[in-house]
Specification:
- Its cofactor is heme.
- By secondary structure, the protein is mainly alpha-helical.
- The protein has a single domain, classed as Cytochrome P450 (Cytochrome p450).
- The protein contains ten helices and seven strands.
- The protein has a three-stranded antiparallel beta sheet.
């Protein structure tokens, strides 16, 4: 219970309206969500299996999709030609109806959207909330920063601006520290080397299976001082600004960095700042 309110009540009152307004929601296509849980195999296998999920019966161009976000159920009807919902799912349905995408292609994109774009953020939010509840001193610093930066916000329904979000340095540091200890994707899908190659000084023969253990990397004493200690301060430079640390890669790094990184970070900062203003978390 948060400040006398249940978590579901806070989500429904403050967050769900914004999700509906901006067309953001956690997506499950009927007949798909249960299958994905049992299909955590190699990346190639996952990609192939997404095209063989049970097909949703489509007797007309109109059908229902079940949206869920933290226990709150929202049912929308998406149909080609109905542009009330300005979201990616509507774009996919429209592209399928106009024969720009096959059904399997639309389904694959929707599955990736659900797993990579929503479940990871929800998992990360859960980890940060756990850290805040377990470490009251960190929670109090976050609350002090939120109240200082958002002091002009009389109502929790007054969403922070982009400029204000950028000023929440300690909150961002707390999010990064939480994602360091509890990455949403602790081990990346296995990839197979297509040819003989070298990674630094390590030879990789063709056919080798390679994976990245993000969980181990982000707790490695070679890169982190007191790696098991929860310390948001490690992310702040002498000027109190958030700094990048090279061994942190929950969104991966390089040219294939997750394109949703900035969106996810801003989304989490908005949700957590709103919770910080209206709630007190207890483990």
């Amino acid at each position: 219970m948060l400040g006398g309110m249940e978590m579901a009540d806070i989500i429904e009152k403050y967050f769900i309206p914004k999700l509906r307004e901006h067309g953001i929601a956690r997506t499950y296509i009927k007949g798909v969500s249960g299958v994905m849980v049992s299909k955590l195999e190699y990346f190639k296998q996952i990609y192939r299996d997404t095209a063989t999920f049970p097909k949703v019966p489509l007797t007309s161009v109109k059908y229902s999709l079940n949206y869920k976000f933290v226990g709150a159920n929202i049912i929308f009807t998406h149909e080609p030609g109905n542009h009330r919902f300005n979201d990616l799912l509507s774009v996919l349905v429209k592209a399928w109806s106009e024969k720009q995408l096959s059904f399997d292609e639309m389904l694959n994109e929707a599955v990736v959207l659900s797993i990579a774009g929503h479940d990871t953020t929800a998992s990360s939010l859960s980890s940060v909330i756990y850290v805040l509840a377990k470490y009251p001193a960190i929670q109090e610093k976050v609350r002090e920063e939120v109240n200082r930066v958002l002091k002009s916000h009389a109502s929790t329904e007054d969403i922070p601006s982009t400029a204000e979000i950028k000023m929440l340095h300690y909150l961002e540091a707390t999010i990064k520290e939480s994602m360091r200890l509890y990455p949403p994707a602790p081990i990346l899908p296995t990839r197979m080397a297509a040819c003989d190659t070298m990674l630094g000084q390590i030879p990789i023969p063709k056919g080798s299976l390679i994976t990245l253990n993000i969980y181990a990397l982000q707790r490695d004493e070679q890169y982190w001082e007191n790696p098991t200690m929860v310390d948001p301060e490690r992310w702040l430079n002498s000027g109190g600004q958030v700094q990048d640390l090279p061994a942190w890669c929950p969104f991966t790094n390089g040219s294939r960095l997750c394109i949703g990184k900035s969106f996810a970070m801003n989304e989490m900062k908005i949700v957590l700042s709103m919770l910080g203003k209206c709630s007190s978390l207890k483990a």
